[in-house]
Amino acid sequence: MRAKKLYRIGVDVGSTTLKVVVLSRVGEIVHKTYKRHKADFNSIFIEELRNIEAMFPDSAFSIAVTGSAGMGIAERTGLSFTQEVVASIEVIKQNFPYVKAMIDLGGEDAKMVFFEEDKQPDIRMNGNCAGGGYFYVHIKRRCLAKYHYSCQR
To answer: What value, to the nearest 5°, has the Cα angle with vertex 56 and ends 55 and 57?
Structure first.
């Protein structure tokens, strides 16, 4: 019997979109999807998993979920859940150690994370419903200046 190929699937179910990435055993991106779910994230999630299963027959998958709507999916299915900012911080620390700041503009909020050597990341978040709009970004330019980062208009 031939061993099944193993793939890792990362799913981010936010307030407006479903993002999926499929990684090979060596971490190469072999498939990715970005879809608006229009509040029907369960159906879109199942549809995407079926598409992936058809694309990679005779394969095994490990699945991890993140995102504001992803928590409910993870709880109902028993899948692993990680908060999206925590997941992003880990990816940056492991793969991009030179990064000094990260901006995450979501559908309902926006986050900024500042990285300094030998310190815990400094996480800033706006209130709900600012939606990552221009005003939030404009205000946070001051935060970037505090860390001596240049911000061009």
So the answer is: 105
Question: How many CA atoms lie less than 13 Å away from 115 in the CB half-sphere?
Answer: 17
Q: How far apart are CA 109 and CA 138, in angstroms?
A: 15
pLDDT digits (tens, 9 = 90+) for 56-108: 999 999 999 999 899 999 999 999 999 999 999 999 999 999 999 998 877 67
Provide the token pair at 134: 């221009």
Q: How far apart are CA 79 and CA 123, in angstroms?
A: 26
How far apart (Å, rounded) are the C-alpha atoms in residues 110 and 121?
16
Q: Is 55 helix (H, G, I), strand (E, B) or coil?
A: helix
Classify domain 5-81 at the CATH topology level: Nucleotidyltransferase; domain 5 (3.30.420)
Q: What secondary structure, in 3-state letters, does 114-132 show?
A: ECCCCCCCEEEECCCCCCC
Q: Where are the domains of the chain?
A: 5-81, 95-146
Helix, strand or coil for residue 149? coil
Tell whether the model's pLDDT for residue 38 goes beyond 80. yes
pLDDT of amino acid 135:
57
Q: What's the full length of the chain, in residues?
A: 153
